[in-house]
Amino acid sequence: MSYFLISFLTFLCAYTLNILYVTVFYHRAFAHRAITLHPLLKTVVVHTGNWVTGLDPKAWVCMHRLHHEYSDTPKDPHSPVTNGIWKIFSLQLYSYKRVILGLQLQKPYYTSMVEDIDFPVNPLNRMRLWFLPYLLHFAIAIAIALSFHAWFLAACYWLGMMSHPLQGWMVNALAHRFGYRNFATSDNSRNNTLVAWLVFGEGYQNNHHYNPGSAKFSVKPLELDLGFGICLILSRLGLVKLDGD
């Protein structure tokens, strides 16, 4: 197997692991209760999520619910309608930091969004050690490079694991500006096919905003939701329960 193929597969595995946590665990399970995680899996996700993704699960859920509550209005944490598509990169980070601080200070505007979430903000964020997951993945990448003399392989690992800012930007910016609409929602959510393919179904924002409680973001035969496919596999393994199971 060639070096570049191994590097690509490494990127793909790391990228998929990151998306698994965000689209299946954080989004469909925690934010919308569209699926229910097995108690053991939930414990694992709560304790490892911040380390795997660099994102606090409770803060992510809070910010996402604010997005649905105020979608494409000035109070939306990351709308391209009011801020333009390129500003979403920095706005995502700014809004996330503001949510973290708001939850830690117990501000009702934020805590009211996550009253049903039965776990606290991760200790990494409470202790201002948010940077440790990024250092961990960087250290792993350096170890790969030095151990195998494989800097490209190391870069593929790191980029796959730390891909969430780009994933988020594609969904939050492009899928609220470019694409088609199956449903007449009050916001500017769109179904962006390319984003949906790259971010495991998340690009079907119009479908999702029309029915956020559904674990399946696709509604038409040619719409591919890989995230829901993962949900089906996990359901067969007894690790998650789909709504209606």
Structure characterization notes:
Strands 1-2 form a two-stranded antiparallel ribbon. Helix 1 runs parallel beside helix 9 (151-161), helix 1 (3-31) packs across helix 13 and helix 3 packs across helix 5. The protein is built from 13 helices and two strands; from the N terminus they run H-E-H-H-H-H-H-H-H-H-H-H-H-H-E. By secondary structure, it is mainly alpha-helical. The chain has one domain. The protein has helices at residues 3-31, 39-53, 57-69, 80-83, 88-104, 108-111, 123-126, 132-148, 151-161, 164-172, 193-198, 205-210, 226-236; strands at 35-37, 240-242. The mean pLDDT is 96.
The level of helicity is 55-70%
Integer average pLDDT: 96
Strand residues, percent: under 5%
Rg estimate, integer Å? 18 Å
The SS-based structural class is mainly alpha
In short:
Helix content is 60%, strand content 2%. It is mostly helical.
What layout of secondary structure does this protein have?
Elements: H1 3-31, E1 35-37, H2 39-53, H3 57-69, H4 80-83, H5 88-104, H6 108-111, H7 123-126, H8 132-148, H9 151-161, H10 164-172, H11 193-198, H12 205-210, H13 226-236, E2 240-242
Antiparallel strand pairs: 1-2
